[in-house]
Amino acid sequence: MASNMAFVNNSQTEHSASTSGLIPNFHNSEESAFSEFYDEVKAIEKRDSVLTSKQQIDRLTRPGATYFNLNPYDVLQIDPDVPLSDVKKKYRQMSILVHPDKNPDDADRAQKSFEAVNKAYKTLENEEGLKRCKEVVEEAKIRTDEMIKQKKKQLKKEGKTQEVPEDNIDKYKHAIYVQTCKLFADLERLRQEREAKDMHDRKRKAEDDALEEERKEMEKEWQKNFEESRTGRVDSWRTWNKKAKKTSKGNLKPPKLKAEKR
C-alpha cells in the first residue's frame, strides 16, 4: 500500500502537534469526546432526514465545522463509493439549499456553507482530487483494521473474549469515518506547513535579492565616483610631480672636482 498514502509515511502526522488552531489534533484521550460529538451530530442528521436550508447551514457552520468540512464526503453527505453522477446530483441539491441568494436573512453563514459545498464538489469532480480522496478512505480502512487487530491481540493476551465494539458494522463505519477525518486534517496541516515554508522562502529570497541589488547599486555608485575623480587625481599628481622636480633642481649643487695630484 506504499503507493496509496506516501504522504502518511513521510508526514508521521497522526499524533503531530497542530500547526493551526482551526485544525484539531485528536489524541487517544480525546477519542471518547469526539465519538460522543460524532454520535450527537449523526443522531441529528438521522432525525432530520430531509434537511432544510437552515439545517444544512447549521450543519456546515457548526462548532468544529472547519475540521469536518475538510472531508468532502461529509460535506456532501455521500458514501465514498457513490458514482460521480450521484455526486453531481447531491451537489446541485445542496448548493441550492445553502445558496446566499436563497437565504438573505442568513447570508454570511450561507456564503460559508455554499463555499464548503462548492469546494467539496470541485475536489471530487477533479480526477486527481478524487484519486487522493479515495486513497485517504482506503488508508483509513487499513488503519481501522489494524487498530481492531491490535485490540483483539491484546484481549487474547489478557485471556479475554476477542470482541470489540467495531465488530458492529455501524461502529466499524464510525471508526473508519474518524480515521478519514484525521487523515484529511493531516493533509490540510501538511498543506499549511508547506505554504508557510514557501512563503518564508519567498520572503527570504526577496530580502536576499534586495540586499544584492543594494550592493550592486553601491558598487556602481562607487565606480562612477571613482571614474569621475580620476582626472582630478591625475592632474593633482602631475602638479605635485612638477613641483617636486623644480624644488630638486633649485637646491641641489653639483660636487666640486678636486685636481688630481701627481
Automatic annotation (TrEMBL):
Residues 71-141 form the J domain. InterPro entries: DnaJ_domain (IPR001623), DNAJC8 (IPR042858), J_dom_sf (IPR036869). Residues 1-20, 195-262 are annotated as: Disordered. Pfam families: DnaJ. GO terms for cellular component: nucleus. SMART domains: DnaJ (SM00271). Residues 195-236 have a biased composition (Basic and acidic residues). Coiled coil: none annotated. It comes from the Eukaryota. PANTHER family: DNAJ HOMOLOG SUBFAMILY C MEMBER 8, DNAJ HOMOLOG SUBFAMILY C MEMBER 8/LIPOPOLYSACCHARIDE SPECIFIC RESPONSE-7-RELATED. This is J domain-containing protein. It comes from Elysia crispata (lettuce slug).
